[in-house]
Amino acid sequence: MRPQSEGSFGQKLDLFRSKLKQILNRKHPLFKLADSIDWAGFDQEFGAMFCEDFGRPALSTRLMVGLHYLRAAYDESDESAVERFLENPYWQYFCGFEYFQHEFPCDPSSMVRWRKRIGEKGFEKLLSETISVAERKGLFTSKEIQKVNVDTTVQEKAIAFPTDSRLYHKMRRRLVKAARHRGVALRQTFERMSKRSLLKQSRYAHAKQMRRARAEVRKLRIYLGRVMRDIRRKVEKPDEEILYLLALAERLFQQKREDSNKLYSIHAPEVECISKGKAHKRYEFGCKVSVATTSKNNWIVGIQALHGNPYDGHTMPEALKQIERVTGVKPEFAFCDRGYRGAEKCVTETQIIFKKYKHFSQSMFRWLKRRAAIEPIIGHLKHTNGMDRNHLLGQIGDKHNALMAGSGRNLRKLLRAFFLFQKFWRLLIQNMKIQIVHNPPLQGF
Question: How far apart are CA 58 and CA 110, in angstroms?
Fold first, then answer.
């Protein structure tokens, strides 16, 4: 069924308890932000994704949207977001509760299912609402979108550093586990021998005895091949999971060092190896992410995960389309680095600027120089909004995590703006009191 309305979800009338509105500080940034978001718009947008008359009522849309906003803003996991909700009254008010709650509002797995239901377009709606709140509060104008900064980065996946020995060992264990689950008696599992070879290989490599280390890697590959062939002989009608695991194992077994489209993780086969030319981190394993911010105040107006390791210049048309979907405005100028050479041939309505020209005015020179302002924003996305290590499953998890990180970054800017506004008025009133004390008004006037 459709989600329960905001007023009826968990709001039992209690005459012996005070409401959160009567307890909390109304000047708190999170309290102000909760009253500024258009929650009814989310109900209208996401309510159509649920059936009308069957099943029990779904969880409140405001609860789920609020938890995802807070999860992204404070870099929490699903489990820690639900736990922190239980002990923070401001979080509870933000999620639409009138009274303080003493029980978990939902199971963390409900957040996973809700993300799958709303999809990528739903998270673009969450990002768009943060821009709308800033516009309603006078912190953002549509004129700012005329000039945007665009850049790409890498969103790393939560995987161990890929080595041939570890991949062979893990793939063999997955195949053995699947065979045991189906009652297939293998001739030999190589559990003890594979574990010993993996340990020897790491020790030999640490001691720079590379010939011995390579010999142990060959042993691990042989063990994997024997298990693969044994399963193919004994499973006459393999199901979909066995076929998928065998295809992964064959892909791993056949790949060479110089091959492209290699397998770097067993549980996340979509992971790609991306080199961005960093001295401290030569290779990163995950997916490329395109980020677009306003040139003036660094509001994130577009962010999306891109698979297949595309050339930066080829990502520009889709980045501009997303900006138009999120904000409703098409930018006139897009400032980027020289990695976007050739993007001007793919885009006609927006002027792509990646280097200086002699005919530029001083104003345009300053805007181009400000392109570097997107770099610290990418750093904040990674270190304060959870984009440095993605734990969500699959390619759709990469897209969801990137969009949540962008929404969380805008949310932190809103909270900081509310806090600074409150601090400004507090200092102004304090200075006025000091001036009145030192300069009292004249008598008779």
Answer: 10
